[in-house]
Predict the structure.
Amino acid sequence: MEKTPITTHISKLTHEGRGIAHVDGKATFLFGGLPDEDVTFKYTHKKSNFAEGDVIEVLQASSQRVTPKCAHFSLCGGCSLQHADHALQIAHKQSVLLEQLKHFGNLSPQEILPPLTANIWGYRKKARLGVKFVAKKNTVLVGFRERKSIFLAQLDQCEVLDPRVGHLITPLRELITTLSVYQNIAQIEVAISDAEVALVFRNLKSLTPEDENKLKAFGKQHNVLIYLQPGNAESVYLLSPESRILNPESLLTYTLPDFDLKLQFHPMDFTQVNSEINRKMVKLALELLAPTKDETVLDLFCGLGNFTLPLARFAKQVIGVEGSDKMVERATANAALNNITNTEFYTADLSADFSANNWAKQTYDKILLDPPRTGAEKIIEFIPHWKAKKIVYVSCNPATLARDAGHLVKHGYHLSKAGIIDMFPHTSHVESIAVFEK
């Protein structure tokens, strides 16, 4: 493989945010490059039909190139687009969505929705930080993996994490180094509510009383809740502060002020990583679905009620369905917490045959879908039975959204609106929302 730098021109971006060049008649994907740039690069991989490389010098820069805010951008695999200004990031993600809809579903929305955006730094409220003692470096690493590697990057701080944790990376490394079990902390789960920060330490070995005291002191110093996880997710328990231990689950809380709602969650529960965007997303989804007091709405993959409970403020009844018993319990409790009585929640595997369930035998006026990356293919097969006149589909994968959209069209729906939701700035992740109508 050539080690001599090669000069080339970049024409556009791949879906994951790498520059595309053509060298010796072969598509070459370059990390760190932007459209309309002349660069020099070095190969990292060469295959028979494509190659990969890293930009080492920008000879002619794009007007949309910016200096990455994070000092670890070139090393850490958490972000891939910090060198592109936000306007380019948004335009790129919108083009990815529209290309995927066309490619997989042969569809174009009648209306492209304005992109949903918010603060682009310090936005991330949920994360899993890897932890590893590296003997060769004689140090503990805390953070995310290196780009295209199984190894953890050596980070001092993270600019996309909420600064209450993003600026704690170095103190966390120093703390773990002092523990007797410094080689047996596997990860730290981060969960941040509107007012509190929770850190769940996955300890593969029991802590000594001195270790626990150090963790408690750290929690008090930095105003964070400290949890331990000695086994599976069910083993998580609160270590400090002691004043919170009186609450058996010690739940965190986030609010949806537009709907006068307070939702409780455990640090290990799934919640959206970007709370500011989540509030805007929920508001937009309800505006698009427009439920009324004489309508029954089905909310699939409902989680702890993030969409269900706002929908209940306007609909006659909302049925929420989720694959996890624990989340269904949480959603039911959140409905009670907010004095909402027109919701029902059910547990069902939505990737399998759910037709025998009573909720599945009903009809619905409108449907909200918020599936995982694999999409909602099994559900789409069942859509005609429910006879809904409108569907709002919130997606974290434009490819599976496009696939499912193609099936919905075959069932008599048309794609009236679609647009992107900037849930993960500086990454190639594309969150989107689409409206299908009879």
Summary: The longest strand covers residues 50-60. The first helix runs from residue 86 to 105.
